[in-house]
Specification:
Largest sheet: none
Helix content: 25-40%
Strand content: under 5%
Number of strands: 0
CATH topology of the domain at 7-39: Erythroid Transcription Factor GATA-1, Chain A
Shape: elongated
CATH class of the domain at 7-39: Alpha Beta
Length: 64
């Protein structure tokens, strides 16, 4: 019979609590949410942000 590995909080690595799944507490859930809001979890890319596309539609219509 296989045993199920106990999951740990992704913020502090403490034992996970079902009420705050996948975190151990409301504090760790709030820390994670703050990281999302601040952009800490952004994936680096070489693509230019969409705001650089503003105005390029006019150039494309003019044939440039």
């Amino acid at each position: 019979m296989a045993t199920v590995a106990k999951a740990h909080c992704p913020v502090c690595n403490a034992q996970r609590v079902e009420k705050y799944r996948p975190f151990c507490s409301k504090r760790c859930a709030d820390i994670d949410l703050g990281r999302w809001f601040s952009g800490s979890y952004a994936i680096p890319t070489e693509e230019m942000p969409d705001e650089f596309d503003i105005g390029t539609e006019e150039l494309e219509e003019d044939g440039f």
